[in-house]
Specification:
Strand content: under 5%
Shape: globular
Oligomer: single chain
Radius of gyration: 22 Å
Largest sheet: 2 strands, antiparallel
Number of strands: 2
Order of helices and strands: HHEEHHHHHHHHHHHHH
Structural class: mainly alpha
Number of helices: 15
Length: 418
């Protein structure tokens, strides 16, 4: 029997209830993620400076020797023998990409990438911001040993970009921050696809089949609503080993596991995705990513080597890709999307502000360094790529913050970023 009309909650109460549910489900996780990324950006910056200082100190030999220290792990059916740097890049960074996979899943299910209306603008903007930098790099390095590095300037560093945006305080609207976050997440999706297709080795079908079987078993555990994390951790490690042995870059296993994590529950309890992201994201942002920077950002800045690297085609391709390709690609793709009425600008955002955010998106660091290590074998090319990443990211950050200071003003309290 229907409840008497007098007992129905007033429309205002329903709106308040829906608003609170939206904040709990969507807004609060975004706020927490952005806050962690901003603080993680500070740790990342400190680690990068430490790497540069160490690599240019009298103890630079110890830095190189430590990174190239061999570490072997023997299992019953496998043996992995590689350097400390590769354990960091292939092993610990799998956790970074696992958290990336979790965030992608959350944004697709509940966030800014749910549905065409929300996802259209950041996805189109990110596409433009990936294609043009890659094209600029390839045009400069075509038919040279460095042409394999075209994927380096494609991705935005979320932590650095959001950290720089935080310096502007209430001058930048929360809608613009969320737009940059969504754009950077789509960037990460593009980078993951590029790594999987273009920067993996020859494929071992036996190991790939084992990896597929493990993922199917994890899927079956999800369907059976097994909530104990222990079997997932064991199977996750086995999946990482199988993917590593298959020739596909092992960090792809982290992304796949993140995407397979349940984002919703039927009993109203906290979803596994939310629990894992809440607990793992700080460790990844404050420890793993800074450790990655410490292991990969060290490069010699002596005058002779610096001059040679800055004028190399690889460094120039990265610098122009980040400094010019990123903002021009993002702005052009966004303008076309709005012009064709596929999407609209975030509420309260002006075109000059969007151009400034496009410049900040040129701050590519973590994933750029990661792709740089995958793209090249020659130490000279790796060093040139690092110099290009550092220079291009620094210039993009300076230009982006300056531009936003010039074109933006304090926002109303309801528009200010959390």
């Amino acid at each position: 029997m229907d409840s008497p009309p007098g007992n129905d909650p007033p429309p205002e109460a329903n709106r308040v209830r829906r608003g609170r549910a939206y904040v709990t489900r969507v807004v609060s996780p975004i706020q927490e993620y952005i806050s962690t990324e901003v603080l993680g950006g500070l740790a990342l910056f400190a680690a990068a400076i430490a790497a540069l200082v160490w690599a240019n100190s009298p103890w630079d030999g110890a830095y190189t020797d430590l990174l190239h220290e061999g570490i072997a792990i023997d299992g019953l059916v496998f043996r992995i023998d590689t350097t400390l740097q590769h354990w960091i890049n292939d092993g610990l960074m799998a956790l970074f990409f696992f958290v990336v996979g979790l965030e992608i899943k959350r944004e697709l299910v509940n966030g800014e990438l749910k549905g065409f209306d929300r996802a259209a603008l950041p996805a189109i903007a990110a596409f433009g911001g990936m294609v043009l930098p890659a094209a600029i790099f390839f045009a400069i390095n075509a038919n040279t040993p460095g042409d394999r590095g075209w994927g380096i300037p494609m991705a935005t560093d979320i932590a650095f970009a959001l950290g720089l945006l935080a310096l502007l305080g209430s001058r930048v609207s929360s809608q613009l921050r969320v737009f940059l976050l969504a754009l950077a997440i789509v960037d990460d999706i593009g980078a993951i696809v590029v790594i999987a297709i273009f920067y993996s080795g020859s494929i071992e079908l036996d190991s790939l089949g084992i990896a597929a079987a493990i993922f199917l078993l994890i899927f079956a555990l999800n369907r059976a609503r097994v909530t104990n994390f222990t079997p997932y951790i064991i199977l996750g490690v086995c999946a990482w080993i199988a993917v590593y042995e298959s020739g596909i870059h092992a960090t792809i296993a982290g992304v796949a596991l993140g995407l397979m994590t349940p984002a919703l529950t039927t009993d109203g309890s906290e979803a596994p995705l939310d629990r894992l992201e809440h607990h793992l994201h700080p460790y990844v942002s404050y420890l793993i990513v800074p450790l990655f920077a410490l292991a990969n950002a060290g490069v010699s800045l002596t005058s002779g080597s610096l001059d040679d690297s800055l004028t190399s085609s690889v460094a120039l391709g990265v610098i122009f890709g980040l400094l010019i390709g990123k903002p021009v690609g993002i702005f052009t793709a966004t303008w076309l999307a709005v012009r064709l009425r596929i999407a609209s600008l975030p509420r309260g955002t002006t075109w000059p502000e969007l151009a400034g955010v496009g410049m900040l998106a040129g701050v590519g660091f973590t994933v750029a360094l990661f792709v740089n290590e995958l793209a090249f074998d020659a130490e000279t090319l790796i060093e040139d790529g690092k110099i290009g990443i550092l220079a291009g990211s620094l210039l993009s950050g300076i230009v982006g913050v300056t531009a936003l200071l010039l074109v933006s003003g304090p926002k109303e309290p309801e528009e200010a970023a959390p």
